[in-house]
Amino acid sequence: MHRRHFISLAPAALAAPWAHAQGGWPTQQIRWVVPYPAGGGTDALARVISEAMRPGLNQQVIVVDNRPGASTNIAGELVATAKPDGYTVMSADNAILAYNEHLFSKLRFDPAKSFTYIGAFGRFPLALVVTPKFPAQTLKEFLAYVRAHPGKVNYASPGNGSPHHLAMELFKNRTGTFVTHIPYRGAAPAMQDVMSGQVDCMFLDLPAGLPTIESGKVRALAIGSAQRVPQLPNLPTLTESGVKDSEVYAFQGLLGPAGMPADVVAKLNGALNAALKAPVVVQRMHDYGMEAQPGTPQQFFDMSRAEARRWGPVIKSAGVKLD
């Protein structure tokens, strides 16, 4: 795959073998790859954002193509090897941008070199929740209970290597505690068993968990954002509760194959940033507990690589491997 510099950005991440797009790009449908099944939060967000981007893209239709599997690597390989003409893009999150290079011994793409970074959508924090039956009302009480009952407390996650799993590994590292991991195949069954009391706790993402928290079906103890979130103003952050260097959140953004033309990237980035201000997108992000992050391709690239560096030692320390 040939790569040249994209303006002043990271040389391998945002490069353009074609100096300019052909004609009045876009002139045809754009394929938007989503690395998860249809009907989930990532899929729904891609559809609402892509529709809101149409006014900035000559009203061209964006077709969502769901390609789940292999912890987003199937979609990643597909996009990394696509023609870099701007007609193939993808939703990307922590997995492909920060985790998988540490979770898999071999990848068929390099997150820092195989993609053009277009722009971030936003991020949403994860909250530590317990079953309503759990004998702790605060994070301080939770930590005291865990330390008094070593090996007796367990936690659920949607699967090995998920943000929820790694968030708890970071939490354990920062607090010097041990809780037993019970991986599930997806967030819904994990959350169901925490609600019923079959499992004690988990880190829960706000898009899936906000209604469950608000209804009292689980008890939230702390949230992994830098500041409290408006949807749960009374919920303290992990930092407020005494756990330092413990921000845990998932983030998403838009990628394309390495080597996209600079003017196509600029047009996509502009359309994306405008879409993030559209009322329908603002409302959807609020419903999901997401913080919008409009910005430049360089900012998206820098954030992604910083997250990869942050999570590498956590994954190595926990001994998590997916192959």
Automatic annotation (TrEMBL):
InterPro entries: BUG, Bug_dom1. Keywords: Signal. The keyword Signal applies. Gene3D superfamilies: Bordetella uptake gene, domain 1 (3.40.190.150), Periplasmic binding protein-like II (3.40.190.10). Residues 1-21 form the signal peptide. It comes from the Bacteria. Belongs to the UPF0065 (bug) family. This is Bug family tripartite tricarboxylate transporter substrate binding protein. It comes from Ottowia pentelensis.
